[in-house]
Amino acid sequence: MRRAEIRTTHDSPERVARAVRPDNTDEMATRVEGDAVVTTVERDSTGGLQATVDDYVVNIRVAAQLADQHTQSNHE
Predict the structure, then answer these.
(1) Which SS3 state, helix, strand or coil, does residue 3 take?
(2) Which residue range(s) make up the domain with 68?
(3) Is this structure's pTM higher than 0.85?
(4) Could you give the CA distance from residue 68 to residue 6 in angstroms, rounded to a whole number?
(5) Which of 22, 24, 29, 69 has the fewest CB atoms within 10 Å around its CB?
(6) Is residue 72 over pLDDT 90?
(7) What's the structural domain count of the chain?
(8) Digit-coded pLDDT (tens) for 20-44
(9) 46: how many CB neighbours lie within 10 A of its CB?
(10) Torsion region of 34: left, alpha or beta (phi above 0 gives left; psi -120 to 50 gives alpha)
(11) Left if phi > 0, otherwise alpha if psi is -120 to 50, otherwise beta: which for 64?
(12) How far is CA 53 from CA 5, 8, 41, 57, 75, in A?
């Protein structure tokens, strides 16, 4: 089994985590630790792990951008 843990920090970590959780597969778990979103991915192969992590990175970027836009619009 191959495993990766991705940790990213955000101003609104709960919002970002809620946005990415629906895309998680059975081999993924997302949690919030302070200002960080932490996602653990386990896959049987290195190639599968890489593909899942690549997809997740795209999803977390979009979620973070949307959370930032929401936060900014609430402050204007």
Answers:
(1) strand
(2) 2-75
(3) yes
(4) 19
(5) 22
(6) no
(7) 1
(8) 999 999 999 999 999 999 999 999 9
(9) 9
(10) left
(11) alpha
(12) 9, 13, 7, 6, 33
Sequence-distant (≥ 6) Cβ neighbours of residue 64 within 8 angstroms: 8, 10, 16
Count of other CB atoms within 10 angstroms of residue 6: 16
Q: Which helix (H) or strand (E) holds 10?
A: none
pLDDT value, residue 20: 95
* Alpha helices per DSSP H over 1-76: 13-20, 46-75
Q: Which two tokens stand for residue 45?
A: 């192969």
- Domain of residue 16, CATH code: 3.30.310.50
The distance in angstroms from the start CA to the end CA of the chain is: 47
Of 29, 38, 42, 50, the closest CA to residue 10 belongs to: 38
Torsion over CA: 48, 50, 54, 57 (sign): positive
